[in-house]
């Protein structure tokens, strides 16, 4: 039988305290896997697991030692998340087996064992492993060819980002992505997940800046039924939903001091409990965070914990602004034109050379997100098949080139720039004034004053 990859044998580790089961499975599965080893207890299993790359582990949930099969599964998957685990359970302990699957096990088999059923489950687990390995290989080949999870960019700045993604994806290291709003930080996080051994697991994203402090603990860690007013049922949190996968914490610097302490504790211990609960849960998720703020300034101000920053910023990835990768703008415009013409049932549109030049030289305070919105607006509202520079929205043409600014007084140029930045921020935040003010770093009163001054109501 072919190996786990083209040149690697598929290895199985059987963990059970009953010698007959160990020997029976070792003999009965010789035609299904390439290499089989056995262990009588958790300590022996962990020792062998540390020395050998086992692709599949079959473990009893009830071991006559200080460690349960569930704890063994958790430890193994924390060390090597790509491992497939099947648990064995006696009649009456199916609930325990389900707990093991929540901890990351692939499936469970009830005792007394039916060897034919075991062979079927192992064959299915092997096929699952091979498919996951092949998916990672194909994604890695695409990344090597210059495209990472659909992210577009041929500029040197983006090629550097792609290289960082390829280097970090195969590890378990936490990643912090920094960059201006609208640069595509979540796409980078998804690329890290897609190229990782956890790619077959879930990708759970939560915007910490959009969740109030009172609800954030429940959002991250879940809650038990009746733990607070309105908690009518048990609810898993983001950490629980992301087991075996990746948890993306967007706007991580917006957390309150208490929430920062809670998150730091989980990152250090890999353990947490649901709100109102006592059962300890294992945090088996790779953490990727993102922020559009300068963290060093927040640390100096005392609004963000330095120790939490070091926990999150093991691998930093800086995403360039659109202004820092202008050579990618024509590629992005072409991509979004095709995307939205297909989506909205429009005939394919083209931009003239002068229109492309204006877009390539525009300020783009909202970055790729703003560019995407502008192209979609053109697709929906422009009736012809050719878009010229005069057809572009004023937010681009008024600040489209530096020569335009040079022909104005400094006061006029500053006012126009301020108006366009506010206009872009309002559009990006769907005209939600509190979010817009927060993004611009001004008070609601200041935003209202500026909107009135520039007639943006």
TrEMBL record:
Transmembrane segments: none annotated. PROSITE patterns: RESPONSE_REGULATORY, SIGMA54_INTERACT_1, SIGMA54_INTERACT_3, SIGMA54_INTERACT_4. Residues 11-126 form the Response regulatory domain. It comes from the Bacteria. Residues 151-380 form the Sigma-54 factor interaction domain. The keyword Ribonucleoprotein does not apply. CDD domains: AAA. Keywords: Activator, ATP-binding, DNA-binding, Nucleotide-binding, Phosphoprotein, Transcription, Transcription regulation. This is Transcriptional regulatory protein ZraR. The gene is zraR_11.
């Amino acid at each position: 039988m072919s190996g786990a990859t083209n040149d690697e044998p598929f290895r199985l580790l059987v963990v059970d305290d009953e010698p007959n089961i160990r020997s029976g499975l070792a003999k009965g599965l010789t035609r299904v896997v390439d290499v089989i080893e056995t262990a009588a207890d958790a300590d022996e299993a962990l020792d062998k697991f540390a020395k050998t790359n086992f692709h599949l582990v079959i473990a009893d949930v009830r071991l006559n030692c200080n460690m349960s099969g569930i704890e063994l599964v958790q430890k193994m998957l924390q060390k090597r998340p790509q491992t497939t685990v099947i648990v064995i359970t006696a009649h009456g302990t199916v609930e325990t087996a389900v707990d093991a699957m929540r901890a990351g096990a692939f499936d469970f088999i009830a005792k007394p064992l039916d060897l034919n059923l075991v062979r079927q489950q192992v064959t299915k687990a092997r096929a699952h492993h091979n498919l996951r390995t092949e998916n990672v290989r194909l994604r890695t080949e695409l990344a090597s060819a210059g495209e990472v999870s659909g992210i577009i960019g041929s500029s040197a700045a983006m090629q550097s980002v792609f290289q960082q993604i390829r280097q970090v994806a195969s590890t378990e290291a936490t990643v912090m992505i920094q960059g201006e709003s609208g640069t595509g930080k979540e796409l980078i996080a998804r690329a890290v997940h897609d190229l990782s051994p956890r790619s077959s697991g879930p990708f759970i994203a939560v915007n910490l800046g959009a969740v109030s402090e009172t609800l954030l603990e429940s959002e991250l860690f879940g809650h038990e039924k009746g733990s607070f007013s309105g908690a009518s049922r048990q609810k898993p949190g983001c950490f629980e939903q992301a087991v075996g996968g990746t948890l993306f914490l967007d706007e991580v610097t917006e957390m309150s001091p208490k929430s920062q302490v809670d998150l730091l504790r989980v990152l250090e211990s890999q353990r947490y409990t649901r709100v109102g609960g006592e059962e300890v849960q294992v945090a088996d998720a790779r953490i990727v965070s993102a922020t559009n703020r300068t963290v060093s300034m927040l640390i100096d101000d005392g609004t963000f914990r330095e120790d939490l920053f070091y926990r999150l910023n093991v691998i930093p990835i800086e995403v360039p602004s659109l202004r820092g990768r202008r050579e990618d703008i024509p590629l992005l415009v072409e991509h979004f034109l095709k995307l939205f013409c297909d989506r909205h049932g429009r005939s394919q549109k083209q931009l003239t050379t002068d229109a492309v030049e204006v877009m390539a030289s525009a300020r783009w305070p909202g970055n790729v997100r703003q560019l995407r919105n502008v192209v979609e607006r053109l697709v929906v509202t422009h009736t012809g098949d050719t878009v010229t520079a005069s057809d572009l929205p004023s937010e681009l043409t008024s600040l489209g080139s530096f020569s335009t600014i040079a022909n104005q007084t400094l006061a006029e140029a500053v006012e126009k720039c301020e108006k366009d930045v506010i206009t872009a921020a309002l559009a990006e935040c769907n005209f939600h004034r509190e979010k817009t003010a927060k993004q611009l770093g001004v008070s609601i009163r200041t935003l209202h004053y500026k909107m009135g001054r520039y007639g943006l109501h």
